[in-house]
């Protein structure tokens, strides 16, 4: 039988067995999972995006409505 794959916890670097028994994977614990979630919620983590691409993507959404008199 082969050895189960092991990954590092993204929060604390503890080795974590990648199996169904590891319910918090890839994290070592619920605590590390919540620490990571908090970092995303407080914008410590972010997916890099070019400001120009984002501006083009949403520029049509920001047009002011026409007001008729």
UniProtKB/TrEMBL annotation:
GO BP terms in the entry: regulation of DNA-templated transcription
Source species, domain of life: Bacteria
Keywords assigned: Metal-binding, Zinc
MF GO annotations: DNA topoisomerase type II (double strand cut, ATP-hydrolyzing) inhibitor activity; zinc ion binding
Cofactor section: Zn(2+)
InterPro entries, per the entry: DNA_gyrase_inhibitor_YacG, Znf_NHR/GATA
Free-text comment on the cofactor: Binds 1 zinc ion.
Annotated residues for binding of Zn(2+): 9, 12, 28, 32
Disordered: annotated span: 47-69
Family affiliation: Belongs to the DNA gyrase inhibitor YacG family.
Subunit note: Interacts with GyrB.
Free-text function comment from the UniProt entry: Inhibits all the catalytic activities of DNA gyrase by preventing its interaction with DNA. Acts by binding directly to the C-terminal domain of GyrB, which probably disrupts DNA binding by the gyrase.
Stored HAMAP family: DNA_gyrase_inhibitor_YacG (MF_00649)
Annotated protein name in UniProt: DNA gyrase inhibitor YacG
């Amino acid at each position: 039988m082969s050895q189960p794959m092991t990954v590092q916890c993204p929060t604390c670097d503890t080795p974590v067995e990648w199996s169904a028994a590891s319910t918090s994977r890839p994290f070592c614990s619920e605590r590390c999972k919540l620490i990571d979630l908090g970092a995303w919620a407080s914008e410590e983590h972010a997916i890099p995006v070019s400001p120009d691409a984002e501006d083009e993507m949403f520029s049509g959404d920001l047009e002011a409505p026409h007001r008729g008199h």
